[in-house]
Amino acid sequence: MALQTILGAGGAIGSALAKELHKYTSDIRLVSRNPKKVNQFDELFPADLSDPKQVDIAIEGSAVVYLVVGFEYSIKVWQEKWPVLMQNVIESCKKHNARLVFFDNIYMYDREFLNKMTEDTPIRPTSKKGEVRAKVVQMLTNEIQSGNLTALIARSADFIGTKNSVLVEMVYKNLKKGKSANWFADANKSHSFTFVDDAAKGTALLGNTPDAYGEVWHLPTDKHALTGKQWVELFADELHVKPKLMVMSTWMMGILGLFVPILKEFKEMVYQYDRDYVFDSSKFNTRFNFTPTTPQAAVKAIAEAM
To answer: What is the CATH number of domain 4-156+195-218?
Structure first.
């Protein structure tokens, strides 16, 4: 079977993706600083992906490469590492004739169009992190359009899963401790979340569908975007607690950011919570006859897994 390689295999998406890829091949290479097996026959490939030589060796022999790296949530780190990594991965994929699947987010979209995001939503970043994402997407798009590289972009909304998820960190864990759930800006605005299992299934399916390449795909996400208040209520119901909620305003985040670095980094992205954020994956759902997991089912699965 053809080798399929995951760059950034240690994160939330990488682990779930490895599980899904097992349906397509038993020849899977997991690349990260400290990779751990997900499937019995996974090949573990420890590597520092900031080193172009190690990137090249990791990609050698691969038929499909999945770039699902999650760097530290720091604009300085993103500006320094993302363009370099994308360039190194592109060059190695071209050298070894590997197809590339890039797992992306929506940070580069025009903030005025978040109420119905499709693959055609205008790209006009209004944050520093969004500018970085737009830059690496353009690098990849240029290679695809020039015919130098076979690649696709699998784009996700904010995701809901057991690791690295705002919903788990700010809502589930707080409610579990008897505290108020936290939300940003306005808890009455709608906010889509892509269930990690659906994101992994969608990414694996796209990577193994030859005619899906050359395009941008929104990964499967339930069309019923709940409000922040409704998400908190779902988790509270699952935990059998009261849906206590505290909404953090932008000015409050600015003050807390002096003491909590992640909030300082997140402040520029808070616009995603002061308006409706609705992610449309109908292109994917129709093409693959896929029904995304409902918010209720996702919350239940996460509560059980935690």
So the answer is: 3.40.50.720
- CA–CA distance, 303 with 248 (Å, rounded to integer): 24
pLDDT tens-place string over residues 186-197 = 999 999 999 999
Where residue 164 falls (left for φ over 0; alpha for ψ -120 to 50; beta otherwise) is left
The per-residue pLDDT for 232 is: 96
User: What are the sequence ranges of the domains in the chain?
Assistant: 4-156+195-218, 159-192+223-278+294-305
Which amino acid is located at 250 in the chain? T
* Residues in contact with 180: Cβ distance below 8 Å, sequence separation at least 6, in sequence order: 174, 244, 245, 246
> What is the pTM (predicted TM-score) of this model?
0.95
Handedness of CA 192, 196, 201, 206 (dihedral sign): positive
Asked whether the beta carbons of 236 and 46 are under 8 A apart, the reply is: no
Q: 283-296: per-residue pLDDT in tens?
A: 999 999 999 999 99
CATH topology of domain 159-192+223-278+294-305: UDP-galactose 4-epimerase; domain 1 (3.90.25)
Per-residue pLDDT at 154 exceeds 80:
yes
Return the number of other C-beta atoms located less than 10 Å from residue 56's C-beta.
16
Q: Is residue 48 classed exposed, middle or buried when 0-12, 13-18 and 19+ CB atoms within 10 A define those classes? A: exposed
H-helix segments, the chain: 12-21, 52-59, 75-95, 128-146, 166, 173-176, 196-207, 228-239, 250-256, 261-266, 282-288, 295-305
In angstroms, the Cα distances linking 199 to 95, 239, 263, 285 are 28, 25, 26, 12
pLDDT in tens, 40-81: 999 999 999 999 999 999 999 999 999 999 888 889 999 999
